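TOKENISE THE FOLD
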Amino acid sequence: MSSEEFEKLHEIYRSLYEDIKLMPERALKCQGEERKRLVRTFDERHGEAEEVLQGMEEELRVAPSSYRNAMSTKLRLYRRDLGKLQRDMKNPVLGLGSSFQPSEGSLHGIYSSQNKQSTHLQSQRTLLLQGTESLNNASQSIERSQRIAAETEQIGTDIITELGEQREQLDRTRNRLVNTGENLSKSRKVLRAMSRRLMTNKLLLGIIILMELAILGAVIYLKFFRK
């Protein structure tokens, strides 16, 4: 809230005031149903103007101190002018300043009608204020939901980015594991080949030893035992 909102309400009030400021004078020149319609219209516009002034009072309480004095002066002048219009409007309704003098029963009917209209307008004002408060609460709730949605979206984006980085790391690790597996497979093949060669060499060595032993035995036999 700021003085800017106060100025908006000020423009609304000026528009309403322009609508009703000539109504007391017009009421002096009309009679009967036309006057009643004019009174009802005045009461409605007057009620709307009162609501606008209440809104201006609320703005005054939270306005910056540098604006508060000027705003307070405007508000006092507006209330004075509005009260004067209401007093002037009651004169033609009561017949003051005109040749029309209503009877006591007529006065009672006018007061009763005014009270009903005032009660109806007050009820409408209450409903309007409640509706405005509900809209404000709904707007604040929507704003909070939007902030939460934006924060959630940002968190989701961060998580997706982090998951992408982790996937790249996993891909690199998998590639390293594949290369390691290939190297291990090659190593196993080399070891198997070396093992086969070792067994072949052992077998050949055994055959050579047996052959040497057979030759040695034959030589001994021929030299010492054969006559």
